[in-house]
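pipeline/complex-builder :: batch 7 item 3
reading input block
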Amino acid sequence: MVVRVKVNNEWRQAEAWPGASLLTFLRERLGLYGSKNACEQGECGSCSVWLDGALVCSCLVLAAQADEREVRTIEGVTASERLHPIQEAFVEAGAVQCGFCTPGFVVAVADLLQKDPDPSPATVREALSGNLCRCTGYQKILDAVSLASTRMRGRT
Amino acid sequence: MEVLLPHSLDEALAIKGDRPEATPIAGGTDLMVDLNFGRRRPAAMVDVSRVPELASWREEDGHVFLGAGLTYTTIVKEMPAFKPLVQASRSVGSPQIRNRGTVGGNLGTASPAGDALPVLAAYDAEVVVRSRARGERAMPWHAFLTGPKKTALAADELILGARWPRRRGPGSFSKIGTRNAMVIAVAGLCLVIDEDGHRVNVALGSVGPTILRATEAEQQIAAAIQSTAAWEDPSVTLTDQVIDEFAELVAAAAQPLDDVRGTAAYRRHGCRVLARRAITWALNERRLPAWL
């Protein structure tokens, strides 16, 4: 079947197996490799994207369910070549080690900070509870969220 | 394989009438895992996530109707008056999962670990289903959930939602697991007090083939509240012995198994602990006017 999705503000269409996930469609049909494929069961958050503005695991969405809908991926987090402040904060805080979970975390943090620019530590932990990192032990990720939140509030 | 994309309830029911083998998919949080791992290859799927009739809730004639397509995120946002339901919804998965997962999915999957199910059982909810051929029917939750991952849903029917009588009184949902998120409950419990009907309802999840009600415990605690006149005067306290008896009766109502997530003995103990906490919270809450 043909699936047409508005991805990062651009309408794109491609052939998809009807049982394919949105993640498979993004990676293997549209060449958007930023969203990572790890658990394929919604446990790890590495494939997090926005579907019509809602944070979702793209591995648990049927590509067909995204037909005629709007998807934003890690590639669309910033329009320019420069890093997004959240990405900069991850780099500076040492929140990136192997980097595999990072796109999912950055998307989840962006989702959190657009709803709650100054979240409490408990709110951050709850918001990131669907993303797994096996390298950092999370503390540096929490530091990065705090740094990003401070900077982004300073800019507006 | 084929995916059908209806945009209205009538259209969806017509598809199920013509193609009863088409597997409904909404949030996909259960079905997609089976698809990704090659465990299921349905000949056809019908995406009910764009059926607007399923995605809302309302109060009518002293009842609450919760549409099958309502996500856990929406419940948390829109239904603060239904505290046990909100607590259960907030304990589902992660933000990503709650943005997709629906109560209809918990009902359709019929896992004894579905977090919304003990709440619906404690609310005395009925499940509303519809087919093009035979129209609408409703059945009590226990008639719908016929066993582990088994329901009374006919092949040509879709789950419309759940309906329960609006009642006044405190209650809670709590569950046991290894984390506060992304956990399939080892044991789950919902307790609600019906101040007008003078009843206490207790439902258990993850500790039996399907959701269980602890009816003996319900009767024991309601009788204790009655005999101490605590229905009329919430400041009356129940003795520790009454609370312990209640917790024992709740634990005795469980029918747990050993599995990878926990032993039967641990699950039964979990029920005892959850029961004692839940009744204590509820009795304390009765002393406050917060639920009014």
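note: The interface with chain A takes residues 1-3, 5, 25, 27-29, 32-33, 35-37, 41, 45, 47, 49, 73, 93-97, 99-100, 179-182 of chain B (CB under 8 Å).
queue -> next item
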